[in-house]
Structures are given as structure tokens and as C-alpha cells.
Amino acid sequence: MTEQTVKLEESWKAALSGEFNSAYMSDLRAFLLKEKEGGKHIFPKGSEYFRALDLTPLDQVKVVILGQDPYHGAGQAHGLCFSVQPGIRIPPSLVNIYKEMQSDLGIPPAKHGFLEHWAKQGVLLLNSVLTVEEGKAAAHQGKGWERFTDAVIRAVNEDCSHVVFMLWGSYAQKKAAFVDQRRHLVLKAPHPSPLSAHNGFFGSGHFSKANAYLISNGREPVDWQLPERPA
């Protein structure tokens, strides 16, 4: 996977050019091609691998939310962590995110799970692994994506100021452990999945804390309320 073969938002392309020209990305591209040639269904579609970066340019990042890998059911994933395409049932973790938003900000839960409204405001919805095989959770872990998304987080850490990192669960917290807390706000809570949300995700107040921090540093707060219809 080279810089020339990837269509990517320009600020990210400049920041990540070294990654695209590296051997591990070539290996990752070869792996993905082999999987597709073998008849395996890969999600999301190729044009959406870097959707999170395309919607949220580096110089506009306000908030980073980290996920692990894409949803592996047909029609779900579209390149943003926790988000699903319009018309798809809202996943349990996102249901709990909406519950916490309602408790924290008084925002009624959306009737859809399409989060591009957040991404377009500077919320980087980044999965650690950007592809998955249909029906096989975590099938593409350890193939190189983690190294690439580490570079994404490193770029935000070094090139941006006053960004809020919402780190939900131990996986996200370990992945972004190097973030400079003198330059950014790091918020930690258990993962919003039904297995752990009651252990401290509910009541964490991350959405109001994020906006308070952004405002105090002269940045526009995020409008967390999603449009009634996906847009």
C-alpha cells in the first residue's frame, strides 16, 4: 500500500507519507489483496478504509475516540468506530453511549447509529484495526493496521493542541498511553459494552467534560446531538 495508491485527505497524507511508503504497509496491502482474491468479504469497502481520516482532517481534530476493529456483519462498518450505516440496528455499545449522553447532556438517544455528524466536527472516530473479514471478529489484528493507527495517534499528539482523548476500555487506554497530558485532555472510563458500562462508563460525564475543556481552550464545542435523519 503506497501513498500513490491511496486517496487520502491531504493533511493526513502529508503526516503519514512515511507510513505508506514502509514495508509493513506493502505487506498489509498484499495480505488484503490475497484475502479478496480468495473470495473473502472484507469490511468496510476499500474506499472507506480511511473514512475517519477523510472526514476529520488532522488540523481540525478536537476529540479522539478509539475503537478496536470494525463491525464484522454485512452492511454495518463504514470506516468510523462505533458507527453503523443508516438503516442498521444500533449496536449495544452505541446504545450505551447514547444513554450516557442523555444522562450527561440531556440529549435524547438518536434513532440511528450513523456518526458522521460528529466526524465532520472534528471527532476522530478511529479504530485500531481498519479492516475485518465478514463474520470473524479481530480477523485482521496483527497484520499492520495497529502500527499505522499508532502513527495516526502520534500525529495528533504531536501536531495538534488541546485535543480530548476519550479512552474507553483497557485496549484504548494502552494504545494511547503515550499521549502528552500536558498538551491534551485524556479521559478514561470502562468500555461502553453491556459487559462493562455499569463499571464506570455510565456517569463518567465525558461529553460535558470534553466540551468544557474545548471551550476553556478557545475551541468550538462539539454538537453531540445527531440529526434526526442520517446526513
Give a short synopsis of this structure:
The protein has 231 residues and is α/β, with parallel strands linked by helices. The chain has one domain: Uracil-DNA glycosylase-like domain (Uracil-DNA Glycosylase, subunit E), CATH 3.40.470.10.
Structure description:
This protein is an alpha/beta fold. It has a single domain (10-217), classed as Uracil-DNA glycosylase-like domain (Uracil-DNA Glycosylase, subunit E). The chain has 8 helices and 6 strands. The chain has helices spanning 10-20, 23-37, 51-55, 92-105, 116-119, 145-159, 170-175, 206-216; strands at 42-43, 63-67, 123-127, 132-133, 164-168, 185-189. The longest helix has 15 residues, at 23-37. The model has no long low-confidence stretch (mean pLDDT 96).
Task: Determine Rg (CA atoms, Å).
Answer: 17 Å
Biggest pleated-sheet summary: 4 strands, parallel
Give average pLDDT, whole number. 96
CATH topology group: Uracil-DNA Glycosylase, subunit E
Which regions have little confidence, pLDDT < 50, spanning 5+ residues?
A: none
Order of strands across the main sheet: 3-2-5-6
Question: In what range is the share of β-strand residues?
Answer: 5-15%
Q: What is the count of helical runs? A: 8
Number of DSSP-assigned strands = 6
Going by CATH, the architecture would be 3-Layer(aba) Sandwich
| Shape designation | globular
Could you estimate the helical fraction of the residues in percent?
25-40%
GO molecular function: uracil DNA N-glycosylase activity
Domain Uracil-DNA glycosylase-like: 54-214
Protein name: Uracil-DNA glycosylase
Enzyme class: hydrolase
